[in-house]
Write a structure and sequence with these properties.
By secondary structure, the protein is an alpha/beta fold. The protein has a domain of about 190 residues: 3-Layer(aba) Sandwich (Rossmann fold). The chain contains ten helices and twelve strands. The strands form four sheets. Strands 2-1-3-4-6-10 form a six-stranded parallel sheet, with helices on both faces. Helix 1 crosses helix 5, helix 2 runs parallel beside helix 3 and helix 7 packs across helix 8. The longest helix is centred in the N-terminal third of the chain and has 21 residues. The two termini are about 30 Å apart. The structure holds NADP nicotinamide-adenine-dinucleotide phosphate. The site of NADP nicotinamide-adenine-dinucleotide phosphate has 23 residues, from helix 1 and helix 2. NADP nicotinamide-adenine-dinucleotide phosphate binds next to helix 1 and helix 2.
């Protein structure tokens, strides 16, 4: 099968290119330009991973998100509609729907994104959903939660570095639940969508189980064969410290505290029912693999 892959140089793209051995992959590195007309050469499906998410240096402007995630997706989707390709897989994000989740996030939730990232992904989703699809063409909007795997430099890697250095985790008094997504499960879903005849639609993607950040710290320590170092500092004291951190530039501030202790559970029921298959790897096994890959890199 001939597929066109955008964002192939990124974390998910590198893993997906390795996973889809046996497919004829053409990579396409795109950046938004006004009035750009994208030409799609002979291709059966497009997997659109390219986008703007991380801003580690905090230098991005709002329009960077709208151009990379909305305008460029629109240009590529228009090219898909005019081409012979039959499938378009757009990697959106759960953040297109919600920045915080109190119960479990399903596809029925009314989208209410708060960040430029989430809003720009949602605008791209809306554009795709609003276009008429001719017979035989299908679109899939995938909404992954936090993806992890080899080569990932995100928050999981930071937590790994802390545990490896023997730095105690001071937030063990907080009990949260959050979903993760092993890049292997993401690649599996994409491959199944390419190979099976699944109805067009919007699908959340997450591993089966959720973990608390404290359980994650324990899993990292167990994988590193270290004793976990957990501090049960009372939550009100931590909250006060984090508020002080907002003004005094301490390592912990309200934003970091929220990221580490928030609940964010995502249902994967719809995609599993559509595929008629379970995901290949459990949350804990996927996390162990990722942690081992950090050890090897
Ligand atoms: N990582 C996560 O936890 C997560 C969670 C939910 C959704 N997602 C989504 O999944 C996709 C892949 O994520 P990732 O973690 O692999 O991201 P990544 O490592 O940042 O890679 C994204 C790729 O997009 C291309 N790109 C970079 N800046 C761009 C811009 N301004 N305009 C257009 N393309 C640009 C680059 O590929 P080329 O140089 O090859 O063009 C880059 O390697 C993204 O759309 C992201 O929003 C990620």
């Amino acid at each position: 099968m001939n597929i066109t892959l955008t964002g192939s140089s990124g974390f998910a793209g590198t893993n997906l290119s390795n996973y889809l051995k046996g497919f004829d992959i053409q990579t396409l590195s795109l950046r938004y330009q006004p009035n750009q007309k994208i030409q799609l050469a002979h291709t059966e499906a497009i997997v659109h991973l390219a986008g703007k998410a991380h801003d580690l240096k905090n230098v991005s402007q709002p329009e960077d998100y709208y151009q990379a995630n909305f305008e460029l997706t629109k240009q590529l989707y228009d090219a898909f509609l005019k081409s012979d390709a039959t499938k378009f897989i757009f990697i959106s994000s759960v953040k297109a729907v919600a920045d915080g989740v109190s119960g479990t996030l399903t596809e029925d939730e009314k989208p209410n994104p708060q960040t430029h990232y989430g809003k720009s992904k949602r605008m791209a989703e809306e554009y795709i959903q609003a276009q008429h699809l001719s017979e035989g063409k299908k679109y899939y909007i995938l909404r992954p939660c936090m993806i992890h795997g080899p080569g990932n430099k995100g928050n999981l890697n930071l937590l790994y570095q802390l545990v490896k250095k023997g730095i105690p985790y001071p937030l063990a008094a907080f009990d949260n639940r959050r979903s993760f997504l092993s890049v292997e499960n993401l690649c599996f879903v994409i491959k199944e969508l390419l190979e099976q005849d699944i109805p067009s639609g919007t699908y959340n993607i997450a591993d089966d189980d959720s973990l608390s950040t404290t359980e994650l710290v324990m899993l990292i320590a167990e994988t590193l064969q270290q004793k976990p170092r957990l501090w049960n500092i009372p939550a009100p004291l931590i909250n006060t410290l984090a508020k002080a951190g907002d003004y005094l530039k301490l390592p912990l501030n309200s934003e970091k505290l929220q990221k580490l202790t928030e609940n964010y559970c995502v249902s994967n029921q719809k995609i599993k029912e559509a595929l008629g298959k379970d995901l290949p790897i459990t949350a804990r096994d996927g996390l162990r693999r990722t942690i081992r890959s950090f050890e090897e890199s």
